[in-house]
Amino acid sequence: MAKWGQGDPRWIVEEREDGTNVNNWHWTERDATSWSKGKLRELLVGITVENEAGCCEISELKQVEGEASCSSRKGKLIFFYEWNIKLGWKGIIKESGAKHKGLIEIPNLSEENEVDDTEVNVSKKKGDGNILKDLMKTAGTAKVREALGDYLKALKTEFTMGMILPTKAMATQELTVKRKLSETTLQIQASSPVALGVRIPTVALHMTELFDTAIEQLYRIFTVKDLVQKFSKSPAVLEAEKGRKFQMFDGNITGEYVELLTNKKIVMKWRCRNWPEEHYAIVALNFVPTLGQTELQLDCKGVPVCEEENMKFCWQKQHFEEIQGLLQLITLNG
């Protein structure tokens, strides 16, 4: 028998306040089913494709059956997911103006198959319109598989945050970093996005996107509640005035308007729900006119280092690309 204080360190409860799942050795499991249904809806509904013959959009998530979960064992994450998905699509033939509808069925999205090999079946209601069906079978299927890949990426990053707890070695490293930070005098300005007393490593981001629309229209998409809800495909609470707070993506994004120059600039305090408490980044959107288009310049300061990739994904996929799709629909509907 091992002496007191000796033995396999995998089973020893370290000096942690919570004292749970030390060294990530024990089996833990988190149900991802509800989260996944919301994420699949967010990524799939609203996908648009277009060519010289017509334009199509995935208009609704008709069915999503299955389950997903993530397990942690010995410091490793194990994923299980199995989905049967049905989507409704609609389209319009440019020359004749004829409208058609159809279905997209994904009978088996699971960890047993690569996303590129996942079966995607496209069908159309009776009648003409095979041009649109072909468009959905080619470009549409490619975009659906891309969205499924984005779902799996989010499942393995966004959903799993906090599942791997810090070990004693990691905690020691964290303590060393904190001590170094405490020995450094930080000049915190009043406009700093980091709350007083919160010292975390951050990065700055710069992104640009070109939109085929007038400045006035693009500015409205960021400041009018109905348009924000359309591109985000989720409830929003906002009133675009200096000092007013806002919520987007079902409360996952919150913040406050710092400055608004109509059709020129928007500055916001901005945070994700899973960021350190009371920590905000400063997001500045500059609207720059070009020949018949508008360039949106995004500058963001104060993003937690560990959230850099998620922040880029959020703005590129959930803002820029969704707004591009919304603008196509606005143009299509006249």
Secondary structure: elements and pairs:
Layout: E1 28-31, H1 33-44, E2 48-50, E3 54-73, E4 76-93, E5 99-110, E6 121-124, H2 130-156, H3 168-182, E7 202-211, H4 215-223, H5 225-232, E8 245-248, E9 253-261, E10 265-272, E11 281-289, E12 294-304, H6 308-332
Antiparallel strand pairs: 1-3, 2-3, 3-4, 4-5, 5-6, 7-12, 8-9, 9-10, 10-11, 11-12
Helix pairs in contact: 1-2, 4-5
Domain Activator of Hsp90 ATPase AHSA1-like N-terminal: 29-163
GO molecular function, one term: protein-folding chaperone binding
Family: Belongs to the AHA1 family.
Describe this structure in words.
- With 334 residues, the protein is an alpha+beta fold.
- It contains 6 helices and 12 strands.
- Strands 1, 2, 3, 4, 5 and 6 form a 6-stranded antiparallel beta sheet that branches. A 6-stranded antiparallel beta sheet has the order 7-12-11-10-9-8.
- This is Activator of Hsp90 ATPase AHSA1-like N-terminal domain-containing protein.
| Uncertain runs | 1-25, 164-175, 180-198
Percent of residues in helices comes to 25-40%
Number of strands: 12
- Overall pLDDT metric: 82
How would you characterize the largest beta sheet? 6 strands, antiparallel
Strand content: 25-35%
Q: Which word captures the global form?
A: flat
Radius of gyration: 24 Å
Question: Counting H and I runs of at least 4 residues, what is the number of helices?
Answer: 6
Measure the end-to-end span. 80 Å
Q: What's the order of the H and E elements?
A: EHEEEEEHHEHHEEEEEH
- Structural class assignment: alpha+beta
